[in-house]
Amino acid sequence: MNILTFDVEDWFQILDNESTKNEKEWLKLESRIEQNMERIFALLDKNNQQATFFCLGWVARKYPQLLKRIDAAGFEIATHSDMHQLAYEFDKNEFRADLQRSIGSIEEVVGKKVRAYRAPGFSLMKENQWVFEELIAQGIEIDCSVFPAKRAHGGFEEFGYAEPAYIELHGQRIKEFPINTYSVLGQNVVFSGGGYFRLFPYSVIKFMMARSPYVMSYLHPRDFDPQQPMIEGLSVLRKFKSYYGLNGAYAKLEKMIEAFSFVDLKAAELAVDWETARVIKL
To answer: Which of 204, 201, 16 is CA-nearest to residue 123?
Structure first.
């Protein structure tokens, strides 16, 4: 099962960077989200390919026509938070407010229930697993935030499972579609999205995908925009993570879609036998 998803955010919404942390700074910068989304639409239309789009509530308010375009094309829309902040920087009340605003903003534009969520930067860890309770309380049925490996922004290595499962917390359950991993010399490697996707040559991605029964991709409009400006003040490492591989990413995605069969999150949920699915009790 290969799942195709996109996190709909603009090029400057980079996490853990003071110069681009809030809306005041975002509004000073050129927006490129609409033109970058057009390239994604063209590729999906060419290949008659479905996908799920995790959208920011901020994007829904600022570019409602973009969400209407996604919905009109028949694509599933989920939430990627409201203001693209790391979940572990919030307390419960702050997280709840951000989540409620994102859901409300998206539902107001498209008129459909938001059922799925992905935390910015996969910033859901053992220490803030109370997030699952908040998601359930707000009617979220599917989470895609677990990154079961080490990561700069959190990571939930203790989760110990990289396939669809139930998460059970205080007697409540939510369906989890975590990021997939591939074992290399005993280390869990991620290859299916973001900087990892841009870093690995296509031959390596193709090799790993062909041997993975479950792949959760997570791509961004900025991943396919080599003309985007360089954010000032980034360290050498952050520049590498954010800008390496932009030139070849679109062609890489095109090859991947042509070589493998993908479904959206909605179809993936239907394909899972939830009667026999593993239950991860937290």
So the answer is: 16
- Domains (ranges, CATH) in the chain? 2-281 (3.20.20.370)
199 phi, psi to nearest 5 deg: -75, -45
What is the average per-residue pLDDT within 203-211?
A: 96
Nearest to 60 by CA among 49, 69, 52: 69
Q: What is the rounded distance in angstroms from the CA atom of residue 187 to the CA atom of residue 202?
A: 20
Buried b (16+ CB within 10 A) or exposed e, 224-259: bbeebeebeebeeeeeebbbebbeebbebbeebbee
Q: How does residue 207 score in pLDDT terms, banded at 50, 70 and 90? A: very high
Find tokens 């203001």 and name the residue: 83
DSSP, collapsed to helix, strand or coil, labels residue 94 as helix
Q: What's the pLDDT score for residue 152?
A: 77
Query: Exposed, middle or buried: residue 54 (CB in 10 Å: 0-12, 13-18, 19+)?
Result: buried
Q: For position 40, what pLDDT does the model report?
A: 98
State CA 230 to chain mean position distance: 22
The percent of residues above 70 in pLDDT, for the chain, comes to: 100
